[in-house]
Design goal:
alpha/beta; Rossmann fold; 2 domains; 393 residues; five-stranded parallel sheet; eight-stranded mixed sheet; 13 helices; single chain
Length: 393
């Protein structure tokens, strides 16, 4: 069930409804009277495909008890946007309209997505109310910080519809990695030759970002070290941006002591220029081609695997051919328990992939799937292979 309260952020709920229904969710909308001043019930009915309820006296429910019947049909109630007033009602158990009564009478989880002016959010009364809601088991999503409709800037802005959607999806996922800390590298690296040129590759980062999203949804605390990509950060994931292989290595080695699982998805450059020109390299009058000397970049996965007490290491190998031989050889050479291989040039930038899992016991092949589905499958495979932390002193 999706409940709307009064606020300009109601316009974002149209997109949130579209995302939920597109994913196959049944969205039943209930609105406060104030919410109808910002977006109409007709709009929400068109987007959800279901009648919208605004009154606790609605006779369309046979027993005239919508506050009971509607809540009993819901797997969860999401209040978005959740106004200052409505958060106060929930914290104090008030039930003076349909939506507040639904929340009090519910027997399902409650999620709230706050949206308000920065001063209203920081008001001590609001902070007390939010703390009480969290203590009562209500999941509070956001708010964000940024520009607000009033022209001010600060905390209180509602999270974007895509982030709200991801958070709702995450709420319903099995928490097979609950309590685990996951470090992931993703995307390409860029090795400069001069201020405007460099060496990189075709990796889009989509697989690594999908794994970060899936790990977070599985309950993990996720630290994502990303090369130069233009992808949005998955909800609930801490992102650290780097450019070069050395920067990625340094970021990983700084964070690895605090992780249980390391997933090296990034397509890291094997070499970098021995000398980076301070100025743009120009053509010479005699058209003599420039020459470059290269040095080897650090092997991030191998470095982590060699630590005295390494996390569970998962490598990725993008091969151009002979995947079986090259994948197993790389797994053994880097001394990792699990390596995921694919034919990289055919999958860079695509939204789907087909992979093979190499481990000491043999090879497991997974069918081609979109990267979101594949990431969820891979996180499940990784979770099943983790050592029992309770047995490790």
């Amino acid at each position: 069930m999706l409940g709307l309260t009064g606020g300009i952020a109601c316009y974002k709920i149209a997109e949130l409804t579209r995302l939920l229904t597109k994913a196959g969710a049944t969205v039943q909308v209930a609105m406060t009277e104030a919410a109808t001043q910002f977006i109409t019930p007709v709009t929400m009915q068109a987007l959800s495909g279901r009648p919208v309820y605004t009154s606790q006296w609605d006779a369309r429910i046979d027993n005239n008890m919508p506050h009971i019947d509607l809540s009993r049909e819901a797997d969860a109630i999401v209040i978005a946007p959740a106004s200052t007033d409505f958060l106060a009602k929930l914290a104090h158990g008030m039930a003076d309209d349909l939506l507040s009564t639904l929340c009090i009478a519910r027997d399902c989880p409650l999620l709230v997505v706050p949206a308000m002016n920065r001063q209203m959010w920081m008001n001590p009364a609001t902070q007390r109310n939010v703390a009480q809601l969290r203590a009562d088991g209500v999941l509070v999503l956001g708010p964000d910080s940024g520009s607000q409709a009033c022209g001010e800037v600060g905390d209180g802005r509602m999270i974007e519809p895509e982030a709200a959607y991801e958070a709702i999806v995450s709420f319903f996922q099995p928490k097979m990695l609950s309590g685990r800390r996951v470090l992931i590298t993703a995307g390409p690296t860029f090795e400069p030759l001069d201020p405007v040129r460099g060496i990189t590759n075709l990796s889009s980062g989509k697989m690594g970002f999908a794994l970060a999203r899936a790990a977070q949804q599985a309950g993990a605390d996720v630290h994502l070290v990303a090369g130069p990509v233009t992808l949005d950060t998955p909800w609930g994931v801490f992102r650290e941006d780097v450019q070069t292989a050395q920067q990625m290595h340094d970021a990983v080695m700084q964070a690895v002591a605090d992780c249980d699982i390391f997933i090296a998805v990034a397509a890291v450059a094997d070499w970098r220029a021995n000398h980076v020109s301070e100025h743009k390299i120009k053509k010479t009058a005699d058209r003599k081609l420039p020459s470059f000397a290269f040095v080897e970049n650090p092997d991030i996965l191998a470095a982590v695997a060699k630590l005295p007490h390494p996390p569970f290491c998962v490598g990725f190998a993008a091969e151009s051919g002979n995947l079986d031989a090259n994948g197993e050889e790389k797994r053994v050479r880097k001394n990792v328990p699990l390596l995921i291989g694919n034919l990289g040039p055919q999958t860079f930038g695509r939204d789907d992939n087909e992979v093979a899992l190499f481990e000491a016991g043999g090879v497991t092949r997974l069918p081609r799937a979109d990267k979101t589905t594949l990431a969820q499958t891979l996180i499940g495979e990784i979770a099943r292979r983790l050592p029992d932390m309770s047995l490790i002193s």
